[in-house]
């Protein structure tokens, strides 16, 4: 093993030679965090055969039941001796059942004596995470849902539909367990149940019946990538279940469990078990029923968004463009060159982002004065803005703590926060909690305090006064800390310290992994990479610069009456961090906040990203008064979509990761975060031209579209490979032509709770064959995307749902109708630079000629595309506003219908759309039209002007711009085809 001094020398030399880190004005001291800070290794309870079975506990008995039209209340009393399965039993509980809305029923169970018997039992406050409320008019008699209960042998309850008695949730035959550090509710499930959701997970969209979803926000690991089936950045305790009924209409419903504690959901054959480490039982049951009486997954999701967690924020129009970022842009010149390279390759680039390369000593809000000087940076951003492009930097929620022995080590963001005493604390010392992150020993804002919101807003505004950025990405907001406990106590004189692992791109931490199939298409490069990886591994075996800390194995802790073990609770969740301990990789659960109750991180951990991104959102409102904030956060919780967008974090450059990106997107549509996407081409490991071509094309149909990768890997900007550049240009051309369609989807997500990307099963809810289909997806209701998800392929297979039942599909590029059998898996041609996109019949699309930026696109002429269904009918809607205002001064909605040979447009609203309407295309005609008539602005235009052409079932009407020069949709219009 190399001595520390030797490691420092090696790292310093390699930095100078390889440019692994930009020059900084702050001296970085490479000091190992002592091994005594390591966390013990634990066995997750679900893997521990010796763990007690909570269902052997006695449960509760209900008494003092008071029932009225709005619901019921009751006392619940422990029905036997204390069980203490994984905590101290709470003897007396309160039950409150409320019919809150026609489609929503709430069941709350919480301790009866919060101020006396159970002062430590934390009930999630509504001011932090809003709790759904009653509409004041729903009663048991007009609710979609019914609550039934029994005391035999102990308290148990059912939730069923009032319309047909369908049982949705049943604890019958199972006991309720309620302890100070462990709650359990177990429901029986129908055979072969179909459950979706429980974001955030890297897993199949269809959740299997042998799956455990652990919820504990975690920085899963920058070098290895997101773990499959492990807990990562978000906690969204909501699932949706669909049932198919042998040819009859399917039914769907949802369950939201409002609790922010660490928790697990155990999906097993015929049962689903909900376990948390504390808090209350606060279930919201959603009927999924719509106005027509049916119940669908889509309606269930709308009910969750609009009634439970809040409708998502409306996005800026420009955010829908392509963005580029990389950890590895070591100076401003490099990033300027990236923008120029995009332009030279004619690949539209909307936004350029910086990772923490720009920071001085890895410290948020402080530019490196050598590599990213403030004045030069500000001038460069101004030039971006002149070209209608945008800049978004990363910030960290960890705040470097100054070295008290070094008078030159000053960090104003810390000093200003310390003066307000607004940081999370270490209860053992009363001082701020000192964790370890990229800058060194660090502290974290306490967003239980208003002072933290004010301090955070001031830091963001101060930085924006220097560099006029356009939005923010909050990273490591799980929150992440790379040591165990308050490890900086007594060591602040060592600051800044190196994180206790090699940083990506440092010597001995180069990434030599490539995607599957690389050895076929790049045989010599694959061999060289394999050799380099072996050499690096050999060196690491004998000279590991940061040796793995030794750990002790800690058995499951036993409940102690009157005591809560916050750092090692008796129930061990399957935390993805090494050792499975809650104290690993984050602020310790026993750290305290500064609110009157001194709430601990045990209760607040999963809310840190939620609260800090809320602070960023409101800070940006101050920076940009009246403008929608663009705020992106890695740590999320249920309801984060009201003020934050999200991305998929540290995914890998593998075909499997690309495939699972689809389910990752779909679960976030369910979670109410529609502005979501994964890093195109992957973040960790190396992409190749095959993977990156396919991924850039697929990601063009995700809501958030960004290419981003890590230091220590090869560059993967789309212009690096000619094939990727061409695939990107083609896919972006489709995306940008559809920007108004996508923006309208966001409008309906924001106003009604709709989804932007959709599972095929949501749009075709009665086709059971689609329940596990997610190698394809829909953008809105009408754009079907079939990406290639395997290496070295030139074909792809896909289904075309609804065929045989009135639905028609058209190739986007040729407008030729797809001829397939119902539920047939069709083989489609898919050359490397092509992605299969199909338009759904029955739709009117509002298109624009794609430009280099979204601004240029918005100024280009419009076209309408009507793709007809079996009844020669189509409809569509488009929404317009200025694309930036929080509350637009003017809006416009244009509705289109095509029926009986006539396309009619009806405009409502005052927003002025200046670009003309140039063309109208109608595909799927059964007869060839003989002429055309266009009625606009009280004038009638016939046959020769406009121009009409016809080919293979498609009519092309052109030369309309001359009639609509003052704005495409300033007036209602009508186009009639004569047959």
From TrEMBL:
Residues 753-844 form the Glycosyl hydrolase family 31 C-terminal domain. Its EC number is 3.2.1.20. It catalyses: Hydrolysis of terminal, non-reducing (1->4)-linked alpha-D-glucose residues with release of alpha-D-glucose. This is alpha-glucosidase. Residues 1-19 form the signal peptide. Residues 312-745 form the Glycoside hydrolase family 31 TIM barrel domain. The keyword Transferase does not apply. One of its GO terms (biological process) is carbohydrate metabolic process. Keywords: Glycoprotein, Glycosidase, Hydrolase, Signal. One of its GO terms (molecular function) is alpha-1,4-glucosidase activity. Belongs to the glycosyl hydrolase 31 family. Residues 540-562 have a biased composition (Low complexity). Pfam families: Glyco_hydro_31_2nd, Glyco_hydro_31_3rd. Residues 540-565 are annotated as: Disordered. It is an enzyme of class 3 (hydrolase).
């Amino acid at each position: 093993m190399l001595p520390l001094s030797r490691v420092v020398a090696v790292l310093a030399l390699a930095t100078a030679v390889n440019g692994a880190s930009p020059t900084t004005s702050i001296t970085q001291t490479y000091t190992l965090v002592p091994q005594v800070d390591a966390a013990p290794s634990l066995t997750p309870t679900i893997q521990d055969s010796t763990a007690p079975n909570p269902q052997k506990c006695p449960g509760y008995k209900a008494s003092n039941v008071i029932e009225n039209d709005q619901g019921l209340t009751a006392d619940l009393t422990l029905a036997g001796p204390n069980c203490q399965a994984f905590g101290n039993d709470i003897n007396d509980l309160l039950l409150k059942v409320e019919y809150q809305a026609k489609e929503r029923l709430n069941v709350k169970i919480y301790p009866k004596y919060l101020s006396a018997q159970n002062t430590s039992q934390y009930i999630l406050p509504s001011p932090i995470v809003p709790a759904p409320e009653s509409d004041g008019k729903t009663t048991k008699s007009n609710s979609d849902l019914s609550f039934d209960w029994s005391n035999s042998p102990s308290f148990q309850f059912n939730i069923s539909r009032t319309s047909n008695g369908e049982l949705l949730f049943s604890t019958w035959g199972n006991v309720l367990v309620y302890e100070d550090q462990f709650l359990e509710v177990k429901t029986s499930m129908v055979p072969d149940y179909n459950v979706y959701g429980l974001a955030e997970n890297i897993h199949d969209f269809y959740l299997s019946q042998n799956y455990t979803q652990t919820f504990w926000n975690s920085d899963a690991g920058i070098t290895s990538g997101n773990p499959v089936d492990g807990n990562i950045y978000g906690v969204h305790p909501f699932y949706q279940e669909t049932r198919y009924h042998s040819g009859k209409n399917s039914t769907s419903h949802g369950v939201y469990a409002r609790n922010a504690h660490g928790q697990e959901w155990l999906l097993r054959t015929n049962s689903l078990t909900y376990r948390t480490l504390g808090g209350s039982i606060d279930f919201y049951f959603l009927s999924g029923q719509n106005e027509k009486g049916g119940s669908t997954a889509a309606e269930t999701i709308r009910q969750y968004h609009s009634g439970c967690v809040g409708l998502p924020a409306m996005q800026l129009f420009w955010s829908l463009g392509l963005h580029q970022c990389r950890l590895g842009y070591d100076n401003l010149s490099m990033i300027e060159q990236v923008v120029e390279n995009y332009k030279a390759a004619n690949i539209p680039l909307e936004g350029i982002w910086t990772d923490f390369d720009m920071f001085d000593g890895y410290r948020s809000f402080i530019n490196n004065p050598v590599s990213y000087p403030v004045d030069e940076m500000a001038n460069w951003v101004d030039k971006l803005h002149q070209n209608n492009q945008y800049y978004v930097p990363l910030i960290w929620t960890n705040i470097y703590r100054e070295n008290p022995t070094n008078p030159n080590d000053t960090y104003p963001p810390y000093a200003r926060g310390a003066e307000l005493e607004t940081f999370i604390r270490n209860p053992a010392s009363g001082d701020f909690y000192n964790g370890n992150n990229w800058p060194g020993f660090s502290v974290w804002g306490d967003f239980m305090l208003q002072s933290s919101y004010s301090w955070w807003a001031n830091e963001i505004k101060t930085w924006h006064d220097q560099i006029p950025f356009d939005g923010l990405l909050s990273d490591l907001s799980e929150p992440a800390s790379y040591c165990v406990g308050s490890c900086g106590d007594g060591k602040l004189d060592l600051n800044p310290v190196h994180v206790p692992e090699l940083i990506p791109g440092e010597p001995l931490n180069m990434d030599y992994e490539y995607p599957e199939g690389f050895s076929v298409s790049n045989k010599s490069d694959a061999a060289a990479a394999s050799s380099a990886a072996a050499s690096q591994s050999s060196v690491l075996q004998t000279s590991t610069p940061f040796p793995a800390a030794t750990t002790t194995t800690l058995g499951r802790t036993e409940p102690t009456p009157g005591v809560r073990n916050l750092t090692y609770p008796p129930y061990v969740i399957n935390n993805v961090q090494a050792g499975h301990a809650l104290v690993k990789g984050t602020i310790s659960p026993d750290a305290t906040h500064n609110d009157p109750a001194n709430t601990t991180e045990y209760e607040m951990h999963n809310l840190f990203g939620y609260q800090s991104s809320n602070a960023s959102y409101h800070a940006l409102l101050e920076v940009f008064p009246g403008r929608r904030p663009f705020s992106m956060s890695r740590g999320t919780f249920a309801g984060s979509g009201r003020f934050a967008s999200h991305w998929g974090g540290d995914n890998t450059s593998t075909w499997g990761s690309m495939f699972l990106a689809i389910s990752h997107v779909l679960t976030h549509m369910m979670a109410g975060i529609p502005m979501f996407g994964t890093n195109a081409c992957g973040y960790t490991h190396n992409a190749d031209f095959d993977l990156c071509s396919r991924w850039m094309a697929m990601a063009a149909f995700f809501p958030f579209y960004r290419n981003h990768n890590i230091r220590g890997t090869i560059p993967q900007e789309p212009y690096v490979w000619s094939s990727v550049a061409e695939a990107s240009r083609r896919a972006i051309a489709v995306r940008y032509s559809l920007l108004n369609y996508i923006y309208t989807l966001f409008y309906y997500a924001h106003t009604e709770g709709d989804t932007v990307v959709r599972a095929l099963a949501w749009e075709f809810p009665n086709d059971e064959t689609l329940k596990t289909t997610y190698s394809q997806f829909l953008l809105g209701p009408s754009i079907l995307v079939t990406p290639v998800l395997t290496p070295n392929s030139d074909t792809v297979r896909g289904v075309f749902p609804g065929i045989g039942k009135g639905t028609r599909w058209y190739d986007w590029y040729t407008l030729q109708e797809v001829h397939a059998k119902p539920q047939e898996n069709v083989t489609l041609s898919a050359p490397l630079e092509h992605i299969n996109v199909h338009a759904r019949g029955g739709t009117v699309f509002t298109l624009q000629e794609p430009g280099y930026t979204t601004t240029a696109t918005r100024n280009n002429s419009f076209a309408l595309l009507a793709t007809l269904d079996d009844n020669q009918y189509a409809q569509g809607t488009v929404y317009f506003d200025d694309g930036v205002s929080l509350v637009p001064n003017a809006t416009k909605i244009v509705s289109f219908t095509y029926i009986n040979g006539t396309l009619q447009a009806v405009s409502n609203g005052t927003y002025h759309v200046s670009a003309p309407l140039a063309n109208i295309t109608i595909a799927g005609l059964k007869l060839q039209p003989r002429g055309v008539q266009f009625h606009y602005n009280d004038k009638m235009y016939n046959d020769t002007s406009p121009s009409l052409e016809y080919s293979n079932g498609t009519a092309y009407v052109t030369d309309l711009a001359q009639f609509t020069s003052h704005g495409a949709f300033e007036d209602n219009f009508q186009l009639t085809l004569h047959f």
